[in-house]
Each structure stands twice: as structure tokens, then as C-alpha cells.
Amino acid sequence: MGSLGYQVEDDLDVVNGHKELPKDYKGLSNGINGIHIRGHVEPTPGRGRPNHFYPITGVYPGVLPKTTGQRPPLKIAIIGGGLAGAAAAGTLSRLPDVDVKVYERSDKVREAGALIGVMVSAMRSLSRMLSPASWERLQYLLYRGDDCEGINHRHWRTGEILTNALSPHTPRHMQEGRISRIALHDLLVRDVPDDVINYSSSVLRVEKNEPSGMRIVFEDGRVEEADLVVAADGLYSKIRRKYLPDGTIAYRGRVSYRQNVPMELVQHIKGLPDDTSSWRRNGEVVFLSKLEPGVYSFVTMASESEEYAKTLEWRHSMGKAGIDRLLEHFKDWDPIINEVVKALPNVEAYPLQSSPWMRDLIRDDAVAFVGDAAHPTAGAYGAGCSFAFSDVRALCLSLWRTHQSSSTTSEASTAPYDVPYALRLYNETRRHFLARVEEQIKLDKLDTAYVAAAGSDEKEWIRRYRERFTINWWILEHDVDAKWQEVEAMERHKDRSQKAIVEAANTIVGD
Ligand SMILES: Cc1cc2nc3c(=O)[nH]c(=O)nc-3n(C[C@H](O)[C@H](O)[C@H](O)COP(=O)(O)OP(=O)(O)OC[C@H]3O[C@@H](n4cnc5c(N)ncnc54)[C@H](O)[C@@H]3O)c2cc1C
């Protein structure tokens, strides 16, 4: 049994730590990920102690027949085919007795976005959701540094490494890595069965159907019905606005300038770090990193006035004007930053916006919100996709838990899933954690303000930075499966009286 959660054939080579790579190693690697699987990988159904309450650890069934009996399948409509929607489509399609459709307003996959951080939390979810082929591909594509671990955090002016972000007890193949949004999206879409994604399908609104389910109304007048709607329509979610019409979307004070370029454009730069580096100063941040093989990424979140940010809303591609603005903005920072900026052919600019996060991620016993539609992060912790994947994983587990196989029920009319109960499990698994994260974003600003208060006293600034800078492991390594198990057990026994619990505790010896 390999560390991937599925069985690895005997002749495969699993190497932990790049120093142990075999001499004849010619296999797939990007910055040497510490794991290489050669040959054929067989998913082994049933690994990970399958049972009715936690059934699918490490199991990746193929696409199941639409129904296992005479009953109609559960119709699941996923609105939005971004990272959250694509992950939901690949994962939920592998549940039994479902008919999954994605409705995406773009006419094709959008070739957009730059660096995405895939945190340890996301790695955990993906290791349980992706097919073996996609998991292996992810290992190949993720960049984790050539000869180093984690992300180096540098002094904004001198480039001195002040601290390093690395998960101390995580093997390298589960460590955080960086990838372009396009490559990550492509990898997720590979796991989606044919004919599931419908492009050019812009959803106008959803309406509750009586007695259950939803109607989906499209911009072009079309109407579809579904038993469950998964709202994955991002920051500007129309579905969220239906339920929370007063929720405002506001500019967060920073613009994300970003550009991925071919490695050839930057590799001549003397002193270009071989790691992933971040330079931080009082709320502003620059990232420089390789991504999947052949791709280099520049990303910054720079403070800009709201007035200026407004001019960028519809003009993302900045050309020379953007480059010149960045050169001026970063003229006092570590010179390597401007060396990279000078080599960029273009830069894209996105004002970072957000809205209050949803307190509850479910509505009408038939709608589940996932990803930015529920909790737009505006770049916080680089964890947007990590939260989205945890949502999807929790939703999938919750549905699975309520599945009634046709062999266990004689009634042809019995619905294959108890959607309201599944949604309750889902909401309880996610809402407390997400509310705490939203609070932490505010708390972290207190520390940023404390460091900034050192002003131009550089020595004191560094002292305060080292004192307060911390990685929120409880966020970045959150294990959604563990949380789901905790919630599921409580929900299952929640109607038991205290008397019954005390009686059981007194009669049953041991655990
Ligand atoms: C074009 C783009 C580029 C991005 N680039 C970066 C980046 O470089 N770095 C980074 O950290 N994050 C980036 N993000 C954000 C990142 O993808 C999210 O923060 C996060 O991963 C959660 O993804 P999501 O699927 O919830 O939302 P999104 O990725 O925003 O996806 C939402 C999807 O829903 C679709 N949609 C919206 N409304 C409707 C509707 N009414 N009907 C049907 N479909 C609809 C959208 O077209 C989109 O495909 C980008 C997002 C987008 C859309």
C-alpha cells in the first residue's frame, strides 16, 4: 500500500525525499516532488476501512451507471465550471444513482489566471478525490522548489530570507505546491465524464420547486429542473444574490497584478531565486515562482486607491502602462523584483474584491454553495481553491452517507438520497470552520498593523515581523474528512437522550 491511499504495484518506485532519487531516474518530476510512480497504478476499491459512515477513502470508482435500480437518479446541477465546479463535477459524478450536469456561462474553458497555491489542506482533499492518473499528473505539475522546501519569505527591500513556510510533519508529496490556474483546471476537467459540462449556459436564477428540488432558469429562457443545485458561480454569484440581496461586493484595497510567462523570458536574470519567494511589506506582497515545467509566474497584491482600481474593472490587460506602473511602485523593493517585471511582455490587473461570507452554505433543502460563491477570499492565505476543494469533498461525503442503494429498499419510488439530511451534514462540516477563518483574516490585520507601526526603523520592523509572522496551519492543513467524521457521529446520535448515552456509557466496557 503506497502513501497515496490506493494500492501501488510491487514494481513501482516510491521515493520520499529528492536525495534518495535513483541514479537512473528519468521520470516525471517538477522541482523534484519526492514521489515517482512508474508503471501501472490500480485503484483498489475498498481500501481505507470502508464502512457505511466513512466509505470512500482512497477509493476511486469509475463512472457508475446512472441508476442501479428502477428509480430515477438524483439530478445534480452544478452552476459554474471554475475550479470548484470542475472539482464537484468530477467527484459527484462518481457517486451512485446520480445524473450530474455543469452549466458554465463561458463558451469554452477560459485561459485565464496565474499562480494558484495548492495548500496541504487541498492536497488532502485532492488525494481522496482525484483519479490516480490526475493525482500523478498533479505531482508532476506542482512546483515545490528545486533544492529547497516550502516558500521563503524575504525582506521586502534586501531580499534576506526572514522565515520559511513549510508544514513540518508533512511528506513532500503532500506539501503545498504552486501551479497555474489553467493547468489545475485542466487536470480537474480530465476527471469529468463526457457530456457533463454544458458551456454557453448562463444561469439567470434558481427557484424552489414544490414539493422539492429547484428550477434553473437560463438567460436564454431555457428551464431545467434538478433535485440538488450546487452553486459554484464564484465571487459574483447570482445565486447568492438571490438569497442575500443586501450582500455588498467591495474593493479590498489591493490590486492583484499577475502574469505567467515562458521560463525562457526570465531565466537569463542573474540571481533569480530557484525557490518560491514572497516579499511582504505592510499588507503588500510579491510572489516569484516557477510553476509547472516551463512556466514562470509573477504575482503581486499591491495597494491602490479605489478610484484607480475602478478604472481596471473592465481592462485587465495592462500592457506597457502596467509594467511602468509596477516599476515605479516597486522601485525601492528588492531589485530582483523589477528585473522580472522588466522581462514581462504584459501584465494583467485584477482589483481584489470580496463580500461577507455566507453563514450557512445551504438553502431551500436543495441548494449547496461551494467555493468563492460562498466565501470569496480575495487572495487571503492563497487558500481559495483549498476551501473550494474541501467544500466539494464534504458535500460528496455527505451525499454518500445518505445514499440508499436500490438493493436495500424495496420501494421503487424511494429517492436514492436524503438531500436535506446530506445538506445539513455538509453545512455543519463547513460553516464553523469558515466563520473562524473569516474572523482570522481580521485578527491577522492587527499583526500587520503592529509590524507596520515600526515605520522606517528597519531593525525594529524585522524584529516585529519575526515576532508576529506565522503560518496559520489550522487553516492551511485543515482536514475536512476528519471534521466531517466528527460532525457525522454527532448528527447520527443527536436525538439520543442523555439517559440513553449515560446508560450505554455505563454498560459497555471499553471502547
Ligand atoms: C478567470 C479567472 C481567473 C482567476 N485567476 C486566479 C489567479 O490567478 N490566482 C488565484 O489565486 N485565483 C484566481 N481566480 C480565483 C480562483 O479561481 C478562486 O478563488 C477559487 O479557486 C475558487 O474557485 P470557484 O470555482 O469558486 O470560482 P471561480 O474560479 O471564480 O469560478 C466561477 C465560475 O462560474 C462561472 N459563472 C459565473 N456566473 C455564472 C452563471 N450565472 N452561470 C453559469 N456560470 C457562471 C464563471 O464563468 C466561472 O467559470 C480566478 C478566477 C477566475 C474566474
UniProtKB/TrEMBL annotation:
Note the InterPro entries from the entry: FAD-dep_Monooxygenase_BioMet, FAD/NAD-bd_sf
Per its UniProt entry, which superkingdom is the organism in?
A: Eukaryota
Q: Which UniProt keywords apply?
A: Monooxygenase, Oxidoreductase
Q: Which GO MF terms are attached to this record?
A: monooxygenase activity
Family per similarity comment: Belongs to the paxM FAD-dependent monooxygenase family.
What is the name attached to this protein's record? Salicylate hydroxylase
- Organism, as annotated: Exophiala viscosa
Q: What is the lineage of its organism?
A: Eukaryota, Fungi, Dikarya, Ascomycota, Pezizomycotina
